[in-house]
Amino acid sequence: RESIVTSNIYDNLELNKLRLSSMRLYGREMEVSLLQKEFNRVCQRCKASLSFPNEHTEQSVCRTTPHMKADEGLLQTSPELILLSGRSGTGKSALAQSLKGYVERSGGIFAMGKFDMRKQSEPYTAFVLAFNELCNHVMSTEASPATLDMRSCLHTAIGSEIEFMTELVPNISQLLGEQEKSNAKNDLTNHGYCETKNKFNFLLRKFLCAFSSKKPLVLFLDDLQWADKASLELFKTLVLDESNLNILFIGSYRDDELERNISLATCLRDIKLQNHMAVSTISLGNLDEETINMLLADILTTT
Asked: What is the pairing mode between strands 217-222 and 74-76?
């Protein structure tokens, strides 16, 4: 009985404890504002393209309207790309993910994938995660004309190659339904590496175009310093694709790894040379003393 009474006392005792009163970011207001501004630009392009409805043909699925950048006075013919750089722990991932709620409230789609240092020998790992998440988004959305329209766009874009795509993005079969068995696996083994890679890249481009044909899309790829060469080639292809104007790409990487990663450095250099008009770079450093004090004051709030 004594132990029960003691237990009840401790159960009801209010002890001081550390807690965070919110999940907000600290000291990144300017960066958050920039991300939202770039996404709003993509939304404007998407609305402009939807104001001219097209037939659901293979040619029209990925058709978008070139956009004039108001702050530069130049015609934009390629997607937006924001690069987040900084050392480990500076909040690159948290900054990018803080945009998700804003995107979804604005009627857009946010998907992300993360490259893993332990899986550098596996191609497309972050893309697989992101594209499966896109499929899950559509499947979790209540049936509506917009959702059915998007499924139709995906069918049109991928066509008879759904099974081939399923080898890379398994959730496609759940989204679009099982197809008649074909020689997709044989195609993977019989064709050479370059031919198979080019086919995947072509289909993934069309897949992404279909998703962004009806809604603005944000695709966040985290830890680019761990990306394999095939993924970097696909990343470059997608970012420079003139059909993907309704997409905001966000990529993060550790800047202290860039000098040792020739493949990533070359990829980013090529993108900037060919797409300098639509590339923004945000360098994140450590928080200043005032911001840290604010963070500590919030953490040390007692109950």
From this structure: unpaired
pLDDT in tens, 5-21: 444 544 544 445 555 55
Residue with the two structure tokens 């939304």: 43
Say what the pLDDT of residue 190 is: 52
Q: What was the pLDDT predicted at 22?
A: 57
Residue with tokens 């988004």: 137
At 210, which amino acid appears? A
Residues of the chain with pLDDT under 50: 1-7, 9-10, 12-15, 55-61, 63-75, 180-186, 188-189, 302-303
Output phi, psi for 69, to 5 deg. Answer: -75, 115
Amino acid at 168: L
What are the φ and ψ backbone dihedral angles of 103, each rounded to 5 degrees? -65, -45
Side by side, which strands form the sheet with 279-283? 109-114, 217-222, 247-254, 80-86, 279-283
Residue 42: name the closest of 60, 64, 63, 62 by CA: 64
67-69/109-114 β-pairing: unpaired
| 15-30 residues labelled b (16+ CB within 10 A) or e (exposed) | eeeeeeeeeebbbbee
- Amino acid code (one letter) for 184: A
Please tell me whether residue 297 adopts helix, strand or coil conformation: helix
Query: Per DSSP, which regions of 179-274 are E strands?
Result: 217-222, 247-254
Which phi and psi (to 5°) does residue 180 adopt? -60, 140
DSSP-derived secondary structure for 252-278: EEEGGGTTT-HHHHHHHHHHHHHHGGG
pTM higher than 0.70: yes
Query: Tokens for 160?
Result: 């008879």
- Check residue 87 and give left, alpha or beta (phi > 0: left; psi -120 to 50: alpha): beta
d(CA 25, CA 20): 11
How many Cβ atoms are within 10 Å of 194's Cβ, its own excluded?
8
